[in-house]
Write a structure and sequence with these properties.
Layout (H helix, E strand, L loop, with lengths): L7 H7 L4 E5 L5 E3 H17 L7 E5 L6 H10 L3 E4 L6 H11 L3 E4 L4 H5 L8 E4 L9 E2 H5 L14 E2 L13 E2 L13 H7 L11 E4 L6 H12 L3 E4 L5 H10 L4 E4 L1 H8 L3 H6 L7 E4 L6 H11 L3 E5 L8 E4 H6 L6 E2 L3 E4 L12 E5 L6 E2 L3 H6 L7 E9 L5 E6 L4 E3 L2 E3 L1 H9 L4 E11 L3 E10 L7 H12 L10 E4 L13 H8 L10
């Protein structure tokens, strides 16, 4: 598609009544005309409140009907915009607000009371998309209503600056170069990314389901790219496996992006619910964000057909790999062949041969920095100039990459490296396990020992007998040194809505607050 077409405004003119957004819970549809007009009004509002190109906007909101208009307004106004995970504690939200240096914050009716209690002395512009009045916040709908629906005079492409999920430590802002260009300029990274949507078969006929929150990089970027090519985005306010299947059938969804936890939850549904689901419209089910257990992916391919497409990448955009279902079936567990050179590096900084596990480094990709943190930026780089996302993995003889776990999640027990992902993959396949996490806990002799924390399908079955059954299950599938020394039971594990496990919250239960944690 011609890059001049890569903007929702083109479709607001060509197909004004075509739905740009459908809200999953309510079915409310927002047309391309409505999206364009509202984004323009909000862009005027941001200009009127003093924000110019390159200024920073923070967004603290759940997924709402206004979400995409706010994002597009920031993009049109040439802003750097940061959606903040509203599930963070108030202190963590404050830390992100302070770190990003936002000149403005947009909250929703749900989050505004929490945000209003923060120290916003350095945030002069405070807006809310909620209908209820919040002291110190200006209602977006009222303020923007009289403003023009025509574009602002000095439009330019903005850029997202997303913070990492904070699964192992404090969230860090990932800042990438901006190109203050005109709308649709092919030199802009956002336009280049949208051009690549053709590789997924996404165009104006596509219906894309986004089951994850928009403060994560992949859902945010994918949704905006779909709008650049004229497709429809179905937004789930929160992931629910039954709802997800219902929306796929109701809206004839053609493309969707998932994380492995979502697959596991759909597979745990009763057989009659799964069999009744109509997923015949799906052309591609993309998944990423974490390694997918082999048995989970195998079952999904058996259920949905060979339409799963996996990629491995990070918000840092330093490199990625990809694999089709057909390839995966001959290389189970792989995340594909890297599209840039990959180096697997051992503890001494030297490359290791195929089959050996080490830190995964990419050679290539775009520039980035961790905002206000040059030490972390430097720590991600190898002396040879390669860069890492912090994952461990190995290459096979054919050049396919397999991930083992995050460096920060590695358990060192008696001097032996143990990778929790493999143990979690074994546990999640037990019929009584709804979710599982494996961490290292203090051990006076070994330094760390392996401990499993499990959420059961039937919480009432927690106890010694179930613990013994799970330990036996692991012993039948794993080497003895990998098996948990014990199992604790939780009503739910600390996952964010995108399915990422916040292991730092689990570790805090077991490690003394003054311990020298390896998690950074």
């Amino acid at each position: 598609m011609d890059s001049e077409m890569l903007h929702p405004r083109r479709f607001a003119a060509q197909a004004p009544d075509h739905p740009a957004v459908i809200m999953g819970r309510t079915g409310e549809a927002i047309t391309y005309r409505m999206l364009d007009e509202e984004a323009n009004r909000l862009a005027h509002l941001l200009r009127d409140r003093g924000l110019g190109s390159g200024d920073h906007l923070a967004i603290v909101s759940e997924t709402t009907p206004e979400s995409m208009a706010v994002l597009w307004a920031a993009q049109l106004a040439g802003l750097i915009y940061t959606p903040i995970n509203y599930h963070l504690t108030a202190g963590e939200v404050q830390a992100v607000l302070d770190d990003c240096g936002a000149a403005a914050v947009v909250a929703s009716g749900r989050t505004a009371p929490m945000v209003a209690d923060l120290d916003l002395a350095r945030v002069p512009v405070r807006l809310t998309t909620g209908a209820d009045a919040v002291a110190g916040f200006e209602c977006v709908a009222e303020a923007a209503a009289p403003l023009p629906t025509a574009p602002i005079a000095d439009e330019g492409e903005g850029r997202e600056m997303v913070y990492s999920g904070g699964t192992t430590g404090r969230p860090k802002g990932i800042r990438k170069p901006t190109a203050q260009t005109g709308i649709g300029d092919p030199a802009n990274p956002a336009v280049q990314t949208a051009l690549a949507m053709g590789n997924y078969g996404v165009d104006y006929t596509s219906v894309y389901l986004s089951p994850a929150p928009l403060y994560h990089s992949a859902p945010l970027v994918f949704c905006m790219c779909v709008h650049r090519v004229g497709g429809t985005v179905v937004l789930m306010e929160r992931f629910d496996p039954v709802d997800c299947l219902r929306l796929i059938g109701r809206h004839r969804v053609t493309h969707a992006q998932f994380v492995p936890t979502m697959f596991s939850r759909m597979l745990k549904l009763p057989a009659d619910v799964r069999e009744a689901a109509d997923v015949s419209s799906l052309q591609l089910a993309i998944h990423a964000a974490a390694p997918c257990p082999v048995e989970v992916k195998q079952q999904m391919i058996e259920w949905w057909g060979p339409i799963l497409f996996e990629y491995y990448a990070g918000t840092e955009d330093i490199g990625h790999s990809a694999i089709t279902s057909e390839e995966w079936l001959t290389h189970p567990g792989s995340v594909g062949r890297p599209l840039q050179p990959v180096h697997i590096v051992g503890p001494d900084g030297a490359e290791v041969p195929p089959g050996e596990v080490g830190v995964v480094y990419f050679d290539g990709g775009r520039d980035f920095q961790y905002h206000n943190d040059p030490e972390r930026t430097a720590a991600a780089a190898h002396p040879n100039g390669w860069r890492t996302l912090g994952d461990m993995g190995r290459l096979d003889e054919e050049g396919y990459l397999y991930l083992t776990d995050r460096v920060a999640h590695t358990i060192i027990s008696g001097g032996v490296n143990i990778y929790p992902q493999e143990i979690e993959d074994a546990l999640i396949m037990h019929p009584q396990v709804a979710d599982a996490a494996v961490i290292g806990v203090p051990n006076d002799d070994l330094g760390e020992e392996v401990r499993a924390v499990v959420q059961l399908v039937e919480p009432s079955r927690a106890g010694d007998d179930t613990e013994a059954a799970l330990l036996t299950w692991c012993a039948d599938r794993l080497a003895a040194f990998k098996c948990p020394r014990g199992v604790d039971f939780d009503q739910s594990l600390p996952r964010d809505p995108n399915g990422k496990l916040m292991k730092r919250y689990l570790r805090d239960r077991y490690w003394p607050t003054d311990s020298d944690s390896r998690i950074v």
